Amino acid sequence: MGDDGPVASIRERTLSNGETTWSVLFRHNGKQTSEPFTRLKAPRGSGIIAAEEFKSLVETLGPEEARRRLNREEVSGLTVDELFEKWIEWKAGTEVTARTIKDYRRDYDNWIKKPFGHRHAEAIDELDVQKWIDSMVTRKLDPKSIGDRHMILSGMFKYGSARSRRLVSSNPCLETALPTKKRKAPKGFSLAQWDAIHAWAGANEKDADDLLTFLAWTGWRFSEATPLTPRAIDDRGDIEVEFDGRRLLIPDVHVAVLGVHRVDENYQVVFAEGVAKSRAGMRTINLPPEAAAVVRRRMVGRGDHDLIFTNSRGKRWHAQNFLQREFARILEGAQIEKVRGMGPHYLRHTHVAMLDRAKVGPSSIQRRIGHENINTTFGVYGGMIGNALSPEELVRLDAVASPRPVAGAVVSGDVVVRGELGG
């Protein structure tokens, strides 16, 4: 088809009763053929628009496919607009927030309504959806944004094609080829950078340092940590543990995610109780000694519903203000060059690196940071966790890979002999 496909034209006529009709003229099987359109025979209630769309289909897909689609358009049923309204009403009755509903409606109005809204839902097929996706790829839109818009359309048709509803017969989004999302390497602060941040903030921005310390030692998100209150903290006293040949007394403090700070439909930050990024996000973890000491200190004098982490004025931390003010000053003081995207969330990745260095297994890492699925943990942090060989494994690898003596030190009593493999 394309440039070598059939050429079609539109002829406009005015009938004796004053009504205007449009006919699409084209050749089919060697004969001149026409398809008439009136005000009533049009998905949008406009005959000229319907005629123009049919003309385009004839020229791109051929007369037979164009007529097949025209017949489908004339099938009675819900329009895509009507399907969306039913779907969004149903979504609003689930655990989806009002802000998310507002975002869905915005994306629908901006990206889905124009190409599909006026058409009957039953008439949309896989080719329509793929053409829509490809048009966004051509415009070089972000693959994640394209995927999010496709998710809305697919969600609508999945809802409508369920056997319990049967609003449409199928979901035309199931076989769509979506652009590949380029997974970015996880970014975090090195332990040396965290030490510099901690040292400068501890001396100059104590309230901010307390929050950052909690983030670094828990891997929590900023929105999970800022609403923390004493009612989410279970202080079980101290416990005795054995470490490196010593007996230590450490705090036994557990904290739970009871909800998160979210932006509502009016773009105001509110506390969403019982809500997290996933079900696994509603987690309880125990704190390492330094983080436990911070929490114990900040709990003093606070009621059950008072915030643990507040600024110097005792007010709630705001993410953007924190990022642009306190965090920017801390990075400058720690002599760390701020790059695009660098923020407190980097400490979540730093925490994963700490866990890996402490020989914590992937399944424990998954539960501690609140991933629903272990595949997500490996997908995000696969390059960071479980990749270091033990010292013994390194020595064996060196012995296997090289015919020379192992470049290590053999310790026998008080004697150290370099360049030999001890037996």
UniProtKB/TrEMBL annotation:
- Would you tell me the protein name for this molecule? Integrase
Keyword Magnesium in annotation:
no
Q: Which InterPro entries match?
A: CB, DNA_brk_join_enz, Integrase-like_cat_sf, Integrase_catalytic, Integrase_recombinase_N, Integrase_SAM-like_N, Tyrosine_recombinase_XerCD
Asked if DNA-binding is a keyword of the record, the answer is yes
Q: Which residues form the Tyr recombinase domain?
A: 184-396
One Pfam family from the record: Phage_int_SAM_3
Its source organism is: Nocardioides aromaticivorans
Protein family: Belongs to the 'phage' integrase family.
Task: Tell me the keywords, alphabetical order.
Answer: DNA integration, DNA recombination, DNA-binding
Q: Where is the Core-binding (CB) domain?
A: 78-161
Transmembrane feature ranges: none
